[in-house]
Structure to design on (325 residues):
């Protein structure tokens, strides 16, 4: 190891006179060419490990040694500061041993695949019915009788239909690859109840099921298209209803008709406990069926009259106070 004081020590150099010159520097023997001067370096008490070429009578300046230890310490501090700063940014610190740009985080397990990505793989479908023994079809193709387990069903959306003497039920299912899905389908009967201000007959596919006076009617579960009608009132309407096994599907009807109301000489008209106006009254909307109206005149008193309101026709109703009721 070289001591810094030794390196920085000044070196004195002296030169011998050229060969052929005496102590006074005169030329020697005639005809001899002078030899180049020989430089002699006075070395310190301990010799240096490397020779240093110098010129005559030149004192070398002190050489500054680069502080490598200090530079390394500064670099280490800078690296630590950068790591701490990145750890404090949103998203947290880098994962240990893995560069952030080289290893992106994997997507969560619950993430849905991209909309354009094809669905691949197969899953399992288990079909149970109440009662058992129902015929099962998958996407329109018969696959067996319940209870039923279907393997290797392609992932995606499918339509399951179960059919029994009491009716049929459809279910839309979504199969996930490497998973099993269970479909429980009750197919015992349900009920339909129709509420209307008059009697209606309930039919399906030209078959009469009953009337609303019976309360609720027993029907198979599933979707039904029912026709509700009253021939006397000229009323008929079709209603679609979805019946669930064991539940009651309710249908509420409040059909309206029109009435033209007049009085002689004139009168206030009341219906259903409220005043609807003074005569003449045209095209007043009231529910179908038999309706009662009250006519009031301050000179002639009060009279009552009824009218049958039918679908499609405007009922005409008039009171003449000048005549006896």
């Amino acid at each position: 190891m070289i001591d810094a004081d030794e390196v920085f020590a000044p070196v004195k150099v002296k030169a011998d006179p050229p060969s052929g010159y005496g102590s006074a520097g005169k030329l020697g023997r005639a005809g001899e060419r002078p030899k180049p001067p020989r430089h002699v370096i006075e070395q310190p008490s301990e010799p240096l490990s490397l020779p240093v070429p110098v010129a005559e009578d030149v004192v070398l300046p002190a050489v500054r040694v680069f502080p490598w230890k200090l530079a390394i310490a500064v670099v280490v501090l800078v690296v630590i500061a950068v790591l701490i700063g990145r750890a404090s940014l949103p998203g947290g610190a880098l994962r240990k041993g893995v560069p952030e740009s080289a290893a992106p985080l994997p997507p969560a397990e619950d993430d849905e695949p991209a909309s354009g990505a094809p669905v691949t793989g197969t899953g399992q479908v288990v079909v149970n019915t109440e009662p058992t023994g129902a015929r099962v079809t998958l996407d329109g193709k018969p696959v067996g009788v319940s209870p039923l387990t279907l393997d290797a069903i392609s992932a995606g959306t499918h339509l399951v239909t179960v059919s029994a003497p009491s009716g049929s039920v459809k279910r839309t299912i979504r199969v996930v690859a490497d998973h099993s899905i269970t479909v429980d389908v009750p197919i015992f009967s349900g009920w339909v109840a129709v509420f209307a201000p008059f009697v209606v007959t309930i039919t399906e596919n030209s078959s009469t099921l009953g009337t609303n006076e019976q309360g609720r009617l027993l029907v198979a579960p599933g979707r039904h298209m029912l026709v509700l009608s009253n021939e006397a009132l000229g009323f008929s309407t079709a209603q679609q209803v979805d019946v669930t096994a064991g539940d009651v599907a309710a249908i509420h009807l409040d059909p309206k008709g029109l009435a033209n109301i007049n009085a002689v000489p004139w009168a206030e008209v009341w219906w259903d406990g409220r005043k609807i106006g003074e005569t003449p009254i045209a095209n007043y909307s009231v529910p179908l069926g038999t309706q009662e109206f009250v006519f009031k005149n301050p000179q002639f008193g009060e009279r009552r009259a009824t009218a049958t309101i039918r679908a499609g026709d405007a009922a005409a109703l008039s009171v003449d106070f000048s005549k006896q009721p």
